[in-house]
């Protein structure tokens, strides 16, 4: 599996140039999403704090998550539960 220059594992990235929606994970099991930001109209009423952002998850990323969630949460040969994340 490929890694980024920051040491994140590339879980899924449908394109080769890094400019498309993608999922990444670090060594602790945290998962990061790259996607299109919502515009201000779509953002309206969501009450998102300034330090957070809402991004779109494409159907391809959702499908990957559904098929691979257990493996994504596996760290050091143990499966994290949601209380540990």
List the helices and strands and how they pair.
Blueprint (H helix, E strand, L loop, with lengths): L8 E4 L9 E4 L5 E4 L5 H4 L15 H14 L1 E2 L2 E2 L6
Antiparallel strand pairs: 1-2, 2-3, 4-5
General description of the model:
This protein is an alpha+beta fold and 85 residues long. The protein has one domain (9-79). It is 21% helix and 19% strand. The protein has two helices and five strands. The strands form two sheets. It has a three-stranded antiparallel beta sheet with strand order 1-2-3, with helices on one face. The protein has a two-stranded antiparallel ribbon with strand order 4-5. A hairpin with a 2-residue loop joins β4 (74-75) and β5 (78-79). It is globular, with a radius of gyration of 14 Å.
């Amino acid at each position: 599996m490929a890694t980024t220059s920051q040491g994140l594992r590339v879980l899924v990235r449908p394109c080769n140039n890094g400019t498309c929606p993608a999922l990444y994970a670090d060594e602790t099991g945290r998962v990061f999403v790259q996607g299109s930001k919502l515009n201000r109209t779509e953002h309206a009423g969501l009450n998102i704090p300034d330090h957070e952002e809402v991004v779109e998850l494409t159907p391809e990323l959702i499908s990957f998550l559904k098929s691979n969630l257990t493996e994504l949460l596996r760290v050091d040969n143990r499966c994290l539960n949601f209380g540990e994340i």
